[in-house]
Amino acid sequence: MLQEVALGQKSLTDYTHIVGKETTERIRELAEPLKGKRVLHVSATAFGGGVSEILYTIVPLMRDIGLDAHWHVIFGKEEFFNATKLLHNSLQGAEETLSDEQWKLFDEINQMNAEGLQGEWDAVIVHDPQPIGLRRGASDQGKNWIWRCHIDLSTPNPAPIERLLPLIEEYDASVWHLPEYVPAEMGAHRDAVNIIPPAIDPLSPKNMAFSPEDAAFVCRQFGIDPDRPLLTQVSRFDPWKDPLGVIDAYRRIKAEAPDVQLALVGSMATDDPEGWDFFQKTFEYADGDPDIKILNNLNNVGAIEVNAFQSQSDVCLQKSIREGFGLTVTEALWKGRPTIGGNVGGIPLQITDGETGFLVDSSEQCAQRCLEILADPELGKRLGRAGKEHARKEFLSPRLLRDWVELLAELDT
Predict the structure, then answer these.
(1) Which residues touch 412 (CB under 8 Å, ≥6 apart)?
(2) pLDDT tens digits, residue range 224-270?
(3) Nearest Cα to 53, choosing from 297, 260, 350, 380?
(4) How far is it, in rounded angstroms, from Cα 220 to Cα 332?
(5) What residues contact 166, with CB distance under 8 A and at least 6 apart?
(6) 179-218 confidence digits (pLDDT tens)
(7) What is the Cα–Cα distance from 106 to 18, expressed in whole angstroms?
(8) Which of 25, 53, 55, 61 has its CB surrounded by the most CB atoms within 10 Å?
(9) pTM (two decimals)
């Protein structure tokens, strides 16, 4: 059997003061016909990365509005997750792709998990490519099957997308962050495409309001001086997140602002074995600079610490080369911090250049924009206020819950 993830309770009512009573009442109204419906989310891992963070909020909120919602995690072994990490990179455009032997393992693990899927469900929502083969092996277990893609498939390596398209097209619906991410090859199946951007939980420990004094206290525990400028990037240690490019930008900034500090903060996920190699590569690239702090969840850096780093930062960064959406951008915007992101993926959906933050295409541009913000605190405040309001309107959990309810209701008719 697949492993069920234990979840706490959440109440939609608690979000009313943030999103408004009209929004929460509308969601409950939409959910009324779905009460008691059994909904299962399936993902590759229960921690590390945006998918699990979303599910820890959205599944309890689904329960609060009357759905019988659950979240299961697939079983896999190291070789499988090595293959799916390669698949992830390949789907985002990397040249290397899976061997015939790896595809065989991919199919075997998916079939094994399909056989372990228990119960009957009104809707099964499968997240990302790792468990995409579940529907083929367990179609009788679900009335409606939805594949939720969290990555950028706009320019994939042709080989893996050709292999996955037949699996995607077996689903009753697919969900994507942006229209641009939907592969051109999907053809007639585009009728089943739905565009739903992700969202953050404003009441989670990572995003709840943090006083400047508390944020400064936490940062001091990790050797960061709260009286000096701080740049922070929170992300997995992954070539697509470009932590080496962030260090390059930091070094340019340091030449003009010697007091600046950099924190690179990430979590190590069970489905990302490549992360350890790139963490080490990033550590070596920092070359022992005492003002570069490279931290992860094994340094006791959890949600509270991430909140503190972002809240204390003079500038938050997400200098991605490729990006599915970039929830760390949303987190920084919600905290009212001036934010600089790569001009890729879902980041431009969140950052309007010069209004809610800055978009950059290089380390040089990133450094220049950071220096502008550091030199002009009023600019930082203006960007921070606009970014926070944009995040409030578009990228918080109640909006995501509403979108899921609308899609489930549409499929149930």
Answers:
(1) 33, 34, 37, 122, 123, 144
(2) 999 999 999 999 888 889 999 999 999 999 999 999 999 999 877 65
(3) 297
(4) 20
(5) none
(6) 989 988 876 667 799 999 999 999 999 999 999 999 999 9
(7) 43
(8) 61
(9) 0.91
